[in-house]
Protein backbone atom coordinates (compact mmCIF):
# COMPACT_ATOMS: atom_id res chain seq x y z
CA UNK A 1 0.00 0.00 0.00
CA UNK A 2 1.19 3.48 -0.83
CA UNK A 3 1.86 6.24 1.67
CA UNK A 4 -1.34 7.36 3.45
CA UNK A 5 -3.38 10.29 2.26
CA UNK A 6 -1.67 12.96 0.26
CA UNK A 7 -3.48 16.27 -0.19
CA UNK A 8 -3.81 15.59 -3.94
CA UNK A 9 -5.59 12.25 -3.59
CA UNK A 10 -7.89 13.69 -0.93
CA UNK A 11 -8.81 16.59 -3.19
CA UNK A 12 -9.32 14.25 -6.12
CA UNK A 13 -11.49 11.93 -4.05
CA UNK A 14 -13.70 14.87 -3.08
CA UNK A 15 -14.03 15.71 -6.78
CA UNK A 16 -14.97 12.14 -7.61
CA UNK A 17 -17.50 12.03 -4.77
CA UNK A 18 -19.14 15.22 -6.07
CA UNK A 19 -19.10 13.88 -9.62
CA UNK A 20 -20.73 10.60 -8.53
CA UNK A 21 -23.46 12.50 -6.70
CA UNK A 22 -24.10 14.60 -9.79
CA UNK A 23 -24.57 11.33 -11.71
CA UNK A 24 -27.21 10.22 -9.20
CA UNK A 25 -25.36 8.57 -6.31
CA UNK A 26 -27.18 8.94 -3.01
CA UNK A 27 -23.90 8.38 -1.19
CA UNK A 28 -20.35 8.63 -2.56
CA UNK A 29 -17.45 8.27 -0.20
CA UNK A 30 -13.71 8.06 -0.77
CA UNK A 31 -12.21 5.31 1.38
CA UNK A 32 -8.83 3.71 1.92
CA UNK A 33 -8.82 0.30 0.27
CA UNK A 34 -7.86 -1.16 3.64
CA UNK A 35 -11.53 -0.76 4.56
CA UNK A 36 -12.65 -3.11 1.78
CA UNK A 37 -13.48 -6.48 3.32
CA UNK A 38 -13.01 -9.66 1.30
CA UNK A 39 -14.27 -13.06 2.27
CA UNK A 40 -14.30 -16.15 0.07
CA UNK A 41 -17.61 -17.14 1.60
CA UNK A 42 -19.23 -14.40 -0.48
CA UNK A 43 -18.08 -16.20 -3.64
CA UNK A 44 -19.63 -19.40 -2.33
CA UNK A 45 -22.89 -17.55 -1.72
CA UNK A 46 -22.85 -16.67 -5.44
CA UNK A 47 -22.14 -20.28 -6.27
CA UNK A 48 -24.76 -21.86 -4.04
CA UNK A 49 -28.07 -20.07 -3.88
CA UNK A 50 -27.89 -17.29 -6.44
CA UNK A 51 -30.19 -18.00 -9.40
CA UNK A 52 -27.97 -15.82 -11.59
CA UNK A 53 -24.80 -17.82 -11.00
CA UNK A 54 -23.06 -18.25 -14.36
CA UNK A 55 -25.63 -16.12 -16.16
CA UNK A 56 -23.15 -13.55 -17.44
CA UNK A 57 -19.49 -12.88 -18.03
CA UNK A 58 -19.53 -10.54 -15.02
CA UNK A 59 -20.49 -13.28 -12.53
CA UNK A 60 -18.71 -16.43 -11.36
CA UNK A 61 -17.41 -18.75 -12.66
CA UNK A 62 -16.49 -16.31 -15.45
CA UNK A 63 -14.81 -13.76 -13.18
CA UNK A 64 -11.37 -14.02 -11.53
CA UNK A 65 -11.22 -16.17 -8.42
CA UNK A 66 -11.33 -14.06 -5.23
CA UNK A 67 -7.76 -14.99 -4.25
CA UNK A 68 -6.51 -13.69 -7.62
CA UNK A 69 -8.54 -10.52 -7.37
CA UNK A 70 -7.32 -9.95 -3.81
CA UNK A 71 -3.75 -9.51 -5.04
CA UNK A 72 -4.81 -6.79 -7.48
CA UNK A 73 -7.12 -5.16 -4.93
CA UNK A 74 -4.36 -4.74 -2.37
CA UNK A 75 -2.23 -2.85 -4.88
CA UNK A 76 -4.79 -0.03 -4.78
CA UNK A 77 -4.75 2.47 -1.95
CA UNK A 78 -7.97 4.42 -2.46
CA UNK A 79 -11.44 3.88 -3.83
CA UNK A 80 -14.85 5.54 -3.96
CA UNK A 81 -17.86 3.65 -2.63
CA UNK A 82 -21.18 4.63 -4.17
CA UNK A 83 -24.78 3.85 -3.29
CA UNK A 84 -27.75 4.44 -5.57
CA UNK A 85 -30.89 2.95 -7.09
CA UNK A 86 -30.40 -0.31 -8.99
CA UNK A 87 -30.99 1.11 -12.48
CA UNK A 88 -28.31 3.77 -11.99
CA UNK A 89 -25.45 1.80 -10.52
CA UNK A 90 -23.79 0.58 -13.70
CA UNK A 91 -23.67 4.01 -15.34
CA UNK A 92 -22.36 5.68 -12.19
CA UNK A 93 -19.59 3.13 -11.74
CA UNK A 94 -18.50 3.44 -15.35
CA UNK A 95 -18.69 7.25 -15.41
CA UNK A 96 -16.72 7.65 -12.18
CA UNK A 97 -14.11 5.23 -13.47
CA UNK A 98 -13.83 7.27 -16.68
CA UNK A 99 -13.55 10.51 -14.73
CA UNK A 100 -10.80 9.07 -12.51
CA UNK A 101 -8.96 7.90 -15.63
CA UNK A 102 -9.19 11.35 -17.15
CA UNK A 103 -7.72 12.79 -13.92
CA UNK A 104 -4.64 10.64 -14.42
CA UNK A 105 -5.62 7.52 -12.47
CA UNK A 106 -5.07 5.25 -15.43
CA UNK A 107 -5.57 2.05 -13.42
CA UNK A 108 -8.98 3.14 -12.09
CA UNK A 109 -11.37 0.19 -12.10
CA UNK A 110 -15.09 0.16 -11.42
CA UNK A 111 -16.92 -2.73 -9.77
CA UNK A 112 -20.66 -2.95 -9.33
CA UNK A 113 -22.90 -4.79 -6.93
CA UNK A 114 -25.13 -7.50 -8.38
CA UNK A 115 -25.33 -9.12 -11.80
CA UNK A 116 -24.71 -7.48 -15.16
CA UNK A 117 -27.91 -5.74 -16.24
CA UNK A 118 -26.90 -4.68 -19.73
CA UNK A 119 -28.38 -7.44 -21.90
CA UNK A 120 -31.46 -9.56 -21.58
CA UNK A 121 -29.23 -12.57 -22.10
CA UNK A 122 -25.47 -12.72 -22.03
CA UNK A 123 -23.56 -13.95 -25.06
CA UNK A 124 -22.48 -17.56 -25.46
CA UNK A 125 -19.33 -18.53 -23.51
CA UNK A 126 -17.11 -18.49 -26.61
CA UNK A 127 -18.39 -15.08 -27.75
CA UNK A 128 -17.14 -11.74 -26.46
CA UNK A 129 -19.12 -9.35 -24.30
CA UNK A 130 -21.40 -7.03 -26.32
CA UNK A 131 -20.58 -3.99 -24.17
CA UNK A 132 -17.03 -4.30 -22.84
CA UNK A 133 -16.83 -0.55 -22.35
CA UNK A 134 -19.71 -0.70 -19.87
CA UNK A 135 -19.77 -4.17 -18.33
CA UNK A 136 -18.06 -4.36 -14.96
CA UNK A 137 -17.78 -7.32 -12.61
CA UNK A 138 -19.87 -7.92 -9.58
CA UNK A 139 -18.16 -7.06 -6.30
CA UNK A 140 -19.62 -10.19 -4.73
CA UNK A 141 -18.24 -12.34 -7.56
CA UNK A 142 -14.77 -11.10 -6.64
CA UNK A 143 -15.25 -11.99 -2.99
CA UNK A 144 -15.99 -8.52 -1.60
CA UNK A 145 -18.20 -8.59 1.47
CA UNK A 146 -20.27 -5.54 0.58
CA UNK A 147 -22.15 -5.31 3.87
CA UNK A 148 -18.99 -5.52 5.96
CA UNK A 149 -17.29 -2.98 3.71
CA UNK A 150 -20.21 -0.55 4.03
CA UNK A 151 -20.15 -0.99 7.79
CA UNK A 152 -16.40 -0.31 7.82
CA UNK A 153 -16.98 2.84 5.76
CA UNK A 154 -19.85 3.91 8.04
CA UNK A 155 -22.38 3.84 5.22
CA UNK A 156 -25.80 2.55 6.27
CA UNK A 157 -26.69 -0.72 4.53
CA UNK A 158 -30.15 -2.16 4.10
CA UNK A 159 -31.22 -5.56 2.89
CA UNK A 160 -33.49 -5.60 -0.16
CA UNK A 161 -37.00 -4.24 0.39
CA UNK A 162 -40.20 -5.21 -1.42
CA UNK A 163 -39.99 -3.03 -4.51
CA UNK A 164 -37.10 -1.87 -6.66
CA UNK A 165 -37.87 1.72 -5.68
CA UNK A 166 -36.77 0.86 -2.17
CA UNK A 167 -33.58 -0.97 -3.10
CA UNK A 168 -30.09 0.40 -3.12
CA UNK A 169 -27.20 -1.03 -5.05
CA UNK A 170 -23.56 -0.29 -4.37
CA UNK A 171 -20.42 0.08 -6.38
CA UNK A 172 -16.73 0.56 -5.76
CA UNK A 173 -14.40 2.44 -8.02
CA UNK A 174 -10.79 1.61 -7.25
CA UNK A 175 -8.86 4.79 -7.99
CA UNK A 176 -5.16 4.32 -7.34
S1 LIG B 1 -22.87 -6.57 -21.26
FE1 LIG B 1 -24.17 -8.20 -22.05
S2 LIG B 1 -22.72 -9.58 -23.04
FE2 LIG B 1 -21.51 -8.28 -21.67
S3 LIG B 1 -21.38 -9.40 -19.73
FE3 LIG B 1 -23.15 -8.05 -19.59
S4 LIG B 1 -24.88 -9.33 -20.20
FE4 LIG B 1 -23.02 -10.34 -20.96
Q: How many separate domains make up the residues?
A: 1
Please give the order of strands in the largest beta sheet.
1-2-4-3
Overall 3D form: globular
Question: What is the β-strand count?
Answer: 4
Total of DSSP H or I helical runs spanning 4+ residues: 5
Largest sheet: 4 strands, antiparallel
Average predicted local confidence, pLDDT: 93
How do the SSEs run, as a string of H and E? HEHHEHEHE
- Percent of residues in helices comes to 25-40%
Small molecules in complex: iron/sulfur cluster
Low-confidence stretches: none
Radius of gyration: 15 Å
Notes on the structure:
There is one protein chain. By secondary structure, the chain is α+β, with helices and mostly antiparallel strands. The protein has one domain. Helices cover 32% and strands 13% of the residues. The protein has a four-stranded antiparallel β-sheet, covered by helices on one side. α1 runs antiparallel to α4. The mean pLDDT is 93. Residues 56-58, 116, 118-119, 122-123, 129-131, 135 line the site of iron/sulfur cluster. The site of iron/sulfur cluster has 12 residues, from loops.
Amino acid sequence: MKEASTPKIKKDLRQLEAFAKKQGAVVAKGIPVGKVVTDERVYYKCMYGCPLYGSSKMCPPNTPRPQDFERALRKYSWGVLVKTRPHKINDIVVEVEKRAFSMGYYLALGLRGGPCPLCKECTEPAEPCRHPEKARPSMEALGIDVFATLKNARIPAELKKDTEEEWFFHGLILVE
